[in-house]
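Progress against Task 2.4 (sequence-to-structure conversion) is shown through the following example record, which the project officer requested during the mid-term review.
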Amino acid sequence: MIDQAPKAGASLPSATHGLSAPRIAAVENAIRRSHDYFLREQSPEAYWVAPLEADTTLESDYVFLLRLLQIEDQEKIRKAIRRIRSQQLPEGGWNTYEGGPEEINATVKAYAALKLGGAGVMDPALVRARAAIERMGGITCVNTYTRTYLSLVGQFPQKGTPAIPPEIILFPKWLYFNIYEVSSWSRAMLVPLSIIYALRPRAPVPEEHGISELFPKGMANTDVHFPWSD
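Structure tokens generated for the chain above:
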């Protein structure tokens, strides 16, 4: 285990000398407290383990994944749905961080996950969620990731999802755009999306588990293209 502690009298780098003494002391105290906390939490085998908490999009995505893989694990789905329901805001939507406002993508994903989990269209939670989705602009305001997830279960038109051919991986590094000119996080999304675009896997769901009610004009008659102004 790591047992080194900050040296007595150690101070922050000179770049912080423009700060007042009380602020420097506060920063140094925060660093020491963080250091001590990590040492306390380290396991005897030298690693750290802790709950990874995030918004309900993780649970929603998990429900999508189980459906796509056709894994009927009702116990896990029940737990995911329970978590999603517990985080619904009084306004009817879901947010992406604690204390934040309702957000369209988190709300649509949660709505779709609840439907996949068996909730009926008149479920009070879904009635409130539909009102929230309408307030935020409707189903067509979701981002490309949400569109892709929905399309995998037949709940969003393919023409409204991004076209990312996997051949972009072959672009040489000297080309202005290549996958090595974007962040690692973006690559981790870009490459899987290109595979989905090429293979177009689908796991259609029964109508009662779909979200057709979020398309007032019907899915086929809804303009799902992104406006050029965006």
